[in-house]
Amino acid sequence: MVDPSMSGFVPFKNTIRNRLMLLLLAATILPITTSMIISYNATKSSVTEESVAMNTRLLSLGKTNIVNYMNNINQKSLAVYNAMNVPRSLYYLLEHDMEDEVFPNDLTDVIRNRNLLKDHLYNIYQSVQEFHQVRLYVVKTNATYLLRNSDMKVGQTEKPPRDAEYTGKTSIEPTHLSHLYGLTFKTSQPEEPVFTLHRPIFRAPSDELLARLSIDVKLSVLQDLNRQLYDEAERLYIVDKSGRVVLASQEAKQEEVLEWFTKVRRADSDSGYIDQKSSDFKGMIFYDRIQTDYMDWYLVKLSPYTHLYERAGNIARINAGVSIGFLAIAVLATLYVSLRITRPLQRLIGYVNKIETGHLNVNIDIQSNDEIGLLARRFRSMMQTINNLILKEYRLEIASKTNQLKALQAQVNPHFLYNAMQSIGTVALQHKDMQVYSLLTSLGKMMRYQMSTESAVVELSREFEYVQAYLDLQKQRFDTGLEATLRIDPRTKGVFVPKMILQPIVENFFKHGFVPSEAEPARLLLVSELLPDGSLSIRIEDNGKGMTEAQLDAAAQALAAGDQPLTQGGAVAHIDEGGIGLRNVLSRLRLHFHPSSTLELYAAHPHGLGVLMHIPLEEGAVL
Length: 623
What we know:
The protein is of the alpha+beta class. The chain is about 45% helix and about 20% strand.
């Protein structure tokens, strides 16, 4: 919630300023804004309905043109079956194995036969202007006849073409670059985008495949048929049912097309529109399905919102221009009110700003007898009371924190344990058991560090030494199942920090996050850095089981609660368990260094938990 004093606006009931401001708002901003919203929404709704109707009609017209053209191509391919029983017809040549049965098997007849076949293919090729080339593949002889312009190439490939094995219905192959179907063809004509109609030719009335006719059609014909369906701001696509692009008015990646085409394909009806809001496109997608016996295409048009609502935007800009004129008058009136009537109020706000910077004893010099003068006198009295309460509360807080620190340091104080450990260490040396002696030495370092009450703050290097001794004991316990890395910036070794701020966090890992695994050892990383702004950063990261997002949120709330009581359990256990506790660590950081010190929990990659402490050092530690 924004502090009203920070915005420069303080509400007063029944004052001239308040009444004038309400009058200005009621007379200008509210009606103008309401009019703009109503006008824009009404225009937008009307434009949407009009666009839906218009684009539906356009796509229906485009669909009709495409179906008529494709039916014409399909009809031309059926010319293979014309005059089936007439000698020298194309079907008759295919049915009687062309060069083997129709004529005597000599070179002259072969040439005559091929010329007949060329004439038939040329008739098909010439029947539609946009045909790029015609290919006939004869199954029995594994022969390919390719007619381009007026030239025909005949040859046999090493293996039948892939489409020759297809024995189904007539189909359309989506857009691709034209090719020579495995033949070598000397031509200067460049390859160009085409789509292909493949028709299998069967021996009637059986399903024996005699040949396969393929007609490559120039893609430009689809572009010409649909050029009137869209403008420069829109995109038009023809996509087959598997999502492959047949025609695109603009280049687009296949994955981008599939993103919105999946929604189109799953739509309830074969025509209509859907709203699309993604990083690549925001607008309306109009579509109409083109379905025949030999093809299943979708005609899709993408219209961005910016284009659809351009007219509504123009009206909104006109309204905005008018409203700006009225608002300018309102601003001038507001300035007049602020300068001539509410100047004492501005002075009072200036005093409040000085108080916010810490000048609690500022002299509020406002002597008027109106509401503002009365407020200033009451404010002076209130600040005196607050100042006295702050001094009293500060002294109580210092005493409380001092008692807390002494109580924490007295938690581990049994000196007899340290003496007993020294005796055990001596026995270990006598028996030459160096491992036991090393472990006792590490434990002794920890106890000496804990029992020391010389100071509440220590050098960061001593904190790392204490953690290292603790980890040495844990390594003995887990052997190769634990890998610990400590990286301390040499510039941070001499920085003083509150005692016992690292060990509770490390101990939490073994209590809550440690996951024994033979496949991967447990890893623990401790890093200290001196940041460019002069602050200290300490990061502790592990690869344990970590915490869920819900647990991280609960932990953040627990840290933010400070000294407020919380119900134990769940993610809060990570905060208050483990010896001193993370909330206590954060409290001592803020007490000894700066109130803006932070302690954050985050999810480590690829798994685990991280703890980040940020300690401003510009004001130094309170020793």
